[in-house]
Write a structure and sequence with these properties.
Layout lengths: L1 E5 L3 H13 L3 E5 L2 H4 L8 E4 L8 H11 L4 E5 L4 H9 L4 E4 L4 H23 L2 E3 L3 E4 L4 E4 L2 E3 L3 H10 L6 E3 H9 L8 H13 L4 E6 L3 E6 L5
Parallel strand pairs: 1-2, 1-3, 3-4, 4-5
Antiparallel strand pairs: 6-7, 7-8, 8-9, 10-12, 11-12
């Protein structure tokens, strides 16, 4: 997932950029509003500071929204309620006040993407992974060789998360934050239980590989067993 970070405060930007990279995001960092409006590759999401050196971030937010539906999260030291309201009214999807932690920003990103993805899926239809597995994110239904698979809510959420980037290694921390709770600090044994259930129910369609001490990787099986 590609994130455009628009922030002129270097220490803040560097800390946030490192955190995003650690969680598997691609990051393009710019320091001005003009640079944000001139990026050549459209991002999947924008993190936008309001206090930019060349223009007001609200104007940048308004311009980005006029161009399309890219999700925008404002990150700003302006914590006044009026600024929050104006930011949301001109098109921002969420508003995070400084100071903030990377974990909070990651949680906000995932929450925003969960809200916008159903709209995208309504246009795209079900996703197919190999010849057997189909995932309908709009209806939250999974089919294996045409037959619906009964998954618990957390099993579905786990599968939906892992299939966002097939082949990518997801750490236990990333998975627990995305599927269970952004503030989860307890044991992760429940993750192993849910992975085992998915392996059993989706045998022959996908592999969920364990990387000892790190996390899991979902691999689509192109040839059914």
């Amino acid at each position: 997932m590609r994130v455009l970070l628009v922030e002129d405060d270097e220490p803040v930007a560097e800390s946030l950029r490192r955190g995003l990279l650690r969680y598997g995001f691609e990051v393009e960092w710019v320091t001005t509003g003009q640079a944000a409006l001139s990026v050549s590759v459209p991002p999947d999401l924008v993190l936008l500071d309001l206090g930019l050196p060349d223009t007001d971030g609200l104007d940048v937010c308004r311009a980005l929204r006029a161009r399309g539906d890219v999700p925008i999260i404002v990150i700003s030291a302006r914590s006044d309620e009026t600024d929050r309201v104006v930011g949301l009214e001109v098109g921002a999807d969420d508003y995070v006040s400084k100071p903030f932690g990377v974990r909070e920003v990651i949680a906000r990103i995932r929450a925003v993407m969960r809200r916008v993805q159903p709209k995208q899926q309504a246009l795209q239809g079900p996703d197919r992974y190999g010849p057997l597995l189909t995932l309908d994110r709009k209806a939250a239904r999974v089919r294996l060789a045409g037959a619906e698979v009964a998954l618990s809510p957390k099993e579905y959420d786990l599968l939906a998360f892992l299939t966002e980037e097939p082949g990518a290694l997801m750490s236990r921390e990333q998975i627990m934050e995305a599927v269970w709770d952004a503030n989860w600090f307890g044991p992760t044994k429940t993750l192993d239980v849910h992975v085992a259930a998915l392996r059993r129910k989706l045998a022959g369609a996908v592999l969920i590989e364990a990387v000892r001490g790190v996390g899991f990787r979902l691999v689509v099986q192109e040839q059914p067993e």
